[in-house]
Structure formats: structure tokens, C-alpha cells
Amino acid sequence: MNKVIIIRWGEIHLKGKNRGLFEKMLENNLKYAVKSFDCTFKKVSGRYLIKDFEPYLTDEILDKISKVSGVHSASVCDLVQSDIDSIIKKSVEVCAEKSGTFKVETKRADKNFPMLSVDISRKVGGEILKANNNLKVDVISPDFILNIDIRESGETFIFTDTILMMGGMPNGSAGKGLLMISGGIDSPVAGYLMAKRGMKLEAVHFHSYPYTSEQAKEKVIELTKAVGEYTGGIKLHIVSFTEIQEAIHKFCKEEYMITLMRRFMMKISEKIAKNNGLQTIITGESLGQVASQTIESITSSNSVATLPVLRPLIAFDKIDIIKISEKIGTYQTSILPYEDCCTVFLPKHPLIKPNLKKVQLEEERLEVDALIECALSNVETIEL
Ligand code: ATP
Ligand code: MG
């Protein structure tokens, strides 16, 4: 158990008086993330340390930390006692397989250590060179830096790599939102981005059984679970949309199908959000991506909402959304070919630029409130 993981936070630095609160939140989230591991967790000046774990668990622990928003970077370090012989021995070992150029950087928090930082760097660098002919010193732009961090505790951390983590703000520090999640690529990414900025999430999904399959629902549960890994778990509200779609199909003009569906989804989502103390609704819409995401279509669905509707992907290109979905591990699930409710009763020519007045008139053909009440009385909620 001679490894330690240093965890550094990012943007919290910018917080003034509230900084303590943000730090506490991050600390709690980190502790929660690693709670299943046999390890110890410590806060030291300006960073957190994870210690006393079996080295084979390192990657699993790093994976958990990579899903904690607010963490800027992490380094896996070798831990030795603070004496120059131990430091040299471990440094030489760490560099044994390396080649190219390097420099040694020493930080000495323990001012009682009997050598100055520059002297330690010079001494250790010299010993590394003696032991490894494939290395050269370059203090201006080295291929890697060997960091020696001599702590007040009598321990020294030695490491070469700094791994960039998720960044953002601690989850729970920026309110609570309801993510409208479909089986597609975009909405899980939208949820991830809001979680990254510190928002706690619940999710809502509309399905149209038997037009959509049980597998389509399972797929959405899978995707929601993946988003939940960034928010310390997540609740999913599943709403049956079948009756509403059938009613629109029966009573309204074909081309209004999607436009009207969107307004129903928004109204029902808002009720669920309010019933659960959530402050905003989040969608995966991206301007102009499809007919239902033109500014006119967005205006039509937005006009039924009173809560703010956040659309973190509004200015993203699909290719960039895909990159994020690959990074967060949702892409492969998102592309499974199960039908979403939006593809049921799909009109041949959906409205691209719906006129709000006409949409409202068309909607008047329906028992809107009764349909909404009925849908809300049958919500299935699961904790993931
Ligand atoms: P996604 O990739 O997220 O499915 P999309 O490009 O397919 O998005 P649309 O089908 O137009 O776009 O959906 C736009 C947004 O509306 C989605 O990102 C999601 O937030 C919401 N949405 C769509 N279908 C559903 C659904 N069945 N349940 C809940 N929300 C949905
Ligand atoms: Mg979709």
C-alpha cells in the first residue's frame, strides 16, 4: 500500500466567501464516490489525498474520481519516507523504463527537511542520469517532469503524470433540474454537461408502449444510469405517452404531430419538476438539427413552460456531441436501434416553422388537461 492519489480541484478557486461550502460539497461527493473501496481519504492544504488502498485498485478508484465534477486533475504517486536515500531510490525506480528528456521539480512543504529544493532536484536528477542512459535533462521543455513533493507529515510523494479530470463544479452546488431523456445521443450528453456544472438531476422519459418496445425503455434506463454516475445516482420518472399520441393522431392534422407532442412533453415535465422541487427543465435540443429544433419549433414548446428550460447543446454540432457521448460512455447504448416515441406516427412532412397561433388552435381540438392528468396519474418512478 505505497501509493497515494492526489486530487486537485479547479474552478472552486474562483469562489470567494462561499469557497468552504463548495469544498465541503466536493469532499462529500468524493467520499461517496470511493466509499466502496478500502482506503482512507484526507484533506490537506489545497487538495485531497486517497491513501491506504491496494495498488491493483488504482484504476478503479481513478475511474470513480473521473466522474466527480469539480475535480480538476489527479496524480498517482509513489509514497516514501522523507529521507534522501528513499527519495533517490524510488525516483530512480520510477524513471527506470523511461527515455527522452526530463527535469526534476521538488516542493518542500516540510521546511525541516535538511536540503533545499534545488539541491534535492539536482542530486536526484544526477542519480537518475547515472542509472538510465536513455535519459537527458532538459529544464526548458522536458518530455516529462519528475515531481517530488515533501510533505510536513514526514512522507514524500513522487509522480510524473497529471491526469486531467472532469472539471466543472461540485454536483449539488448549482440547483436541481429535470432532464428530458430520450433514447438518443443528445439528451444524455445534455444531462452530463449540466451535472458537470454542479446541477443535481432527475430525469423524465416518455414512452409509447406497445408502439415502442420494452427494450427501448431498458435502453433509456441504461442511459439514465450512465448519467446518474455523474450525479451520485438519479431518479427516473417514466410517463406513458400512448394515449396522448393516439389522441393527437386521431383529432389533429398529421403535420402537427411532433409540434403538439413536444408541448405535451414540456407541460408534463414541468408538472413533474414542480412536484419534485426541481427548478429547471433540461433538453438535448441543438438549433436546427431536425424539424422540431428550429427556433420556431423551440418557441412553440417553450411557450408552454414557466420554468426556465436549459438547452446546453443548443450551439453544438452533432460531431462534437458524439465526441462527448463517446467520452462519457453513452454512445454505444444510444445508437442501439430501438424506436423512440417520437418516431411513432411520424408525419411525412412535419412542420418546420410552426406558427404559434395555428398550433394553439390545433391543440384546442384536444382535452389537454384531462390527457395530462391521466398521464401524470400513471408515472412510474425508479431510483437508479
Ligand atoms: P436525442 O438525441 O436526445 O434523442 P434528438 O436529436 O433525437 O435528441 P428530438 O427527438 O428532437 O432530438 O428530441 C429533442 C429533445 O427532446 C431531446 O434531446 C430530449 O431532451 C427531449 N425528448 C425527445 N424525446 C423524448 C422522450 N421520449 N422522452 C423524454 N424526452 C424526450
Ligand atoms: Mg431523439
Shape: elongated
What is the CATH architecture annotation of the largest domain?
Answer: 3-Layer(aba) Sandwich
Instruction: Name the assembly state.
Output: single chain
N-to-C series of helices and strands: EHEEHEHEHEEEEEHEHEHHEHEHHHHE
Give the helix level as a range of percent.
25-40%
Under CATH, the topology of the largest domain can be stated as Rossmann fold
Q: How many strands appear in the DSSP assignment?
A: 15
Taking all residues together, what is the mean pLDDT?
94
CATH 4th-level superfamily of the largest domain: HUPs
> What percentage of the residues does DSSP assign to strands (E)?
15-25%
The number of helices is: 13
> What is the domain tally?
2
Specify the CATH class of the largest domain. Alpha Beta
Give the biggest sheet. 9 strands, mixed
Distance between the termini: 33 Å
In angstroms, what is the radius of gyration?
A: 27 Å
Q: List ligands, each type once.
A: adenosine-5'-triphosphate, magnesium ion
Alpha-beta content class: alpha/beta
List unreliable stretches of 5+ residues.
Answer: none
Account of the 3D structure:
There is one protein chain. The chain is an alpha/beta fold and 384 residues long. The protein has 2 domains: 3-164, 2-Layer Sandwich (VC0802-like); 176-383, Rossmann fold. It contains 13 helices and 15 strands. The chain has helices at residues 19-33, 58-65, 84-94, 117-131, 186-196, 214-228, 242-251, 257-275, 295-302, 318-327, 331-334, 356-363, 368-376, and strands at residues 3-9, 40-44, 47-51, 71-81, 100-108, 135-137, 144-150, 155-159, 163-164, 176-180, 200-207, 235-240, 280-282, 309-310, 380-383. The strands form 2 sheets. Strands 1, 2, 3, 4, 5, 6, 7, 8 and 9 form a 9-stranded mixed β-sheet that branches. The protein has a 6-stranded mixed β-sheet with strand order 14-13-10-11-12-15, with helices on both faces. Helix 6 (214-228) links the parallel strand 11 and strand 12. The longest helix is centred in the last third of the chain and has 19 residues, at 257-275. The chain is elongated. It starts with a strand and ends with a strand. The mean pLDDT is 94. Magnesium ion is lined by residues 182, 184, 340, 342.
